[in-house]
Amino acid sequence: MPISQTRFDLQPDEMPTHWYNILSDLPFELPPDLPPQSHGAAATTVRPQVPLELIRQSIARRAEIAIPEEIQAIYRQWRPTPLHRALHLEAALQTPAQIYFKYEGNNSSGSHKLNTAMAQAYYYKRAGVKRLTTGTGAGQWGSALAMACHAFGLACKVYMVGISYRQKPYRKVVMQMYGATVVPSPSPETRAGAQFLIQDPDGRGNLALAITEALEEALADDDSRFCIGSGESYSILHQTIIGLEARKQLAQAGVYPDLVIGSLGAGSNFGGIAFAFLRDRLRGESQVRCLSVEPSACPKLTRGAYRYDHTDSSGVTPLQKMYTLGQSFATPDIHAGGLRYHASSKLISALYHQRLIEAVAYQQPEVFKSGVLFAQAEGIVPAPESAHAVHGAVVEALKAREAGTRPVILFCLSGHGYFDMAAYEAYLAGDLRDVVIDDEQIAASLALLPDVE
Ligand SMILES: *Cc1c(COP(=O)(O)O)cnc(C)c1O
Fold it and tell me: Ligand 1 pocket test: which of 269, 275, 420 has the largest number of ligand atoms within 8 Å of its C-beta?
């Protein structure tokens, strides 16, 4: 029997030297950001949070944006990342589909978020900033930023969503190992946090609040800036290296994907794996389908509205047009903390609105079932967020078995789940349930959105 190759690696000098800017190929204009509604004065103090170079990257029109040498050098610590063929998963599913996955968990932060963390820390450092503040949900972004700040000599302060802080204590230790200060959000250290603690005495918190606290602290200190892990166009740009590498690796394997799948938080992971292929489709060179997978408990693309909303809960950041559940939507506590964000980035949202990408939502128990199947078949425990993409691939592979088709499926295994044992423990104990979100609950939080078009 011939031995099938299951791993496709690139040499260090084959790592892409440019990110791919999808704005250059869009057949439509993105809706403009709008100034925040109420806090007119505060708005002007928020803009300079982001270095000019990152703003330029968000509006540039050229297709290729060079990755600075310093960033390439640090990327080479863990990139190019491997592409695997999931032969054992295919066998377990008895599917004629070919399943490939790109693995982004091979670094201490354990996820793809390091790709933009390193780039952002580099640009903030060059802009003269001394210290970065941020909010983190499940902790992957906080870990990535802590590593990046350490690499570029910046101080780092992380507000971590309270419930994750307690569910995943070792995430905190990783951040501290890289020199970051970590506090649970809501915290009494900020006005927003102290106010929130009154209605949330257990301190469960949410990502929008953690972001608000981090922003409040940065606004009070000249040497500090607030930064964000996903959702902004520049963070998606930095992640495109994932798909660009995967494209070369699939070519080594002699295939091109019919379907590209990524889990969806705010969108950088999905954009990261999908845009290098969506480019071919926008240029009329392929029919590739790009499918995002979100949790049924936070169904922004599948059940949200395409409206202007804030990206945090402070009300001082510009309004962006996004698929959103409303910034006040109370996302149930689910284990995929990185997918609990109330909206999807304006870029991903616009692509969905134009029907250039697809979206599905799945429940936690089915997602974890596929996560465990994947761990058993392929020997890597997926992060709960990544298990959504695994489940998306499993569903599509089973459809192919029914239909007797042989699609090539690529998904991004965005991170590992070794800090998520509490989540897997709950699944194995049978404690996870389907979550039902009523239409009224979504309508009620959408009703609170600013009335602008
Ligand atoms: C944050 C995260 C996601 C979702 O990220 P977005 O880029 O915001 O869509 C997916 N997988 C893992 C492992 C994550 O940490």
Answer: 269
Q: What is the pTM of this model?
A: 0.96
**Which among 175, 210, 229 is the end of a domain?**
229
Question: Which residue's CA is the closest to the ligand 1 atom numbered 5?
Answer: 265
CB-ligand 1 contact for 296 (6 Å cutoff): no
- The residue nearest atom 6 of ligand 1, judged by CA position, is 265
Phi, psi of 58 (to 5 degrees): -80, -15
Whole-number Å distance, alpha carbon 257 to ligand 1 midpoint, is 22
Residue 29 lies in a domain: no
**d(C-alpha 236, C-alpha 232), whole Å:** 7
Residue 57: inside a domain, yes or no? no
Number of neighbours of residue 253 by Cβ within 10 angstroms = 17
Of 140, 207, 294, 374, which is best to mutate to test ligand 1, by the most ligand atoms within 8 angstroms of its C-beta?
A: 140
Checking if the pLDDT of 169 tops 50, the result is yes
Whether 172 and 293 map to the same domain: the answer is no
- What mean pLDDT comes out for the span 330-338? 87
pLDDT tens digits, one per residue of 35-44: 876 644 444 4
Statement to judge: residues 397 and 276 lie in one domain? yes
pLDDT in tens, 113-122: 999 999 999 9
- 385: which 2 tokens? 């967020």
b/e sequence 74-95, b meaning 16+ C-beta within 10 Å:
bbeebbbbbbbbbeebbebbeb
CA 339 to centroid of ligand 1, rounded, Å: 6
| Closest atom of ligand 1 relative to the 235 alpha carbon | 7
Do 363 and 401 have their domain in common?
yes
Q: Which residues contact 27 (CB under 8 A, 6 or more apart)?
A: 282, 354
- 41 Cα: distance to centroid of ligand 1 (angstroms): 33
State percent of the chain over pLDDT 70: 96
Domain that holds residue 405: 7-15+68-107+234-446
Q: Is 143 in the pocket of ligand 1 (CB under 6 A)?
A: no
In a domain, 60, yes or no: no
Same-domain check for residues 74 and 213:
no
Identify the residue with better confidence: 273 or 202.
273
Q: What is the pLDDT of residues 357-387, one digit of tens each?
A: 999 999 999 999 999 999 999 999 999 999 9
Number of domains in the chain: 2
Tokens of 424: 């897997």
* Terminal-to-terminal C-alpha distance of the chain: 62
Q: Where does the pLDDT of residue 406 fall: very low under 50, low under 70, confident under 90, or very high at 90 and above?
A: very high
Ligand 1 atom at minimum distance from 266 CA:
8
